[in-house]
Amino acid sequence: MKRINKMDISKLLFNETLAELKIGEAADYRNNLEIVTEQEGDIPGIKTLTLNGFDFEITLLDDVILGIQYDFTYEQTDGLFMMVNDEKLPLNHTLVSKDLENFLVSNKINFDLHESNIEPFTIKLKNLNSAFYFDNDHQLFKISVFDMELYRKIINYK
Q: Mapping DSSP to helix (H, G, I), strand (E, B) and coil, where does residue 152 land?
């Protein structure tokens, strides 16, 4: 029987930290990041970090971490979750947007809903860089923490 790893990603969602990685800081060569795509000019590069059996994508520009995301379209798992006020919410490909909304409301976490015809339905945590992306059936397919303001600062320095 396959052992299923469990991992709380609350620090990523609320503090932009995953293990030794923090958004806004330099990616240290000791973090064993595997290159997926190289940076090309202002287009960030992507690396992966495997942590507790989960593959996270790390977005970097000039070796500064801009974002960290987990994509359920590559790996469907039931092992990720977030904890708020001792309440646990599993984060997986079967989570529907309404369940996340209810969890956030019950825990007094402010959020915005973004719906358009050309982009996926998104729930963004207010005053944070965290977003949850949902498919046409409103099922979770990606969790992303990305600092767009930091990206703009870096490209304006070039």
A: helix
